[in-house]
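=== Discrete structure encoding ===
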Amino acid sequence: MNDATSSKDPLPENRRRMPRARTLKAGKLLFGGFHKTSIDCLILDLSDSGVHIETAVMINTPETAFLKIQDEIIGPLQKRWASGNQIGFDFITKKD
């Protein structure tokens, strides 16, 4: 295994299935029953398949969550990785 695909680094660009557009937007990570927990976050990049966010502090994120950007709620999301206060999520797609 070469350094670019090492499992030690969750952020390498070449591991993404879809390219993500760099963006800096404020949002809220929502989780728990009826979205009872809301954590402010910064959306670092976004694609059709997932999102990379940063929180002000490290949090114990559940495996599934939702993301609120302005008045739009996006999700459900599946946690893909977490490193420090950065978290990567995949969008969960419904299967017919």
Summary: The longest strand covers residues 72-83.
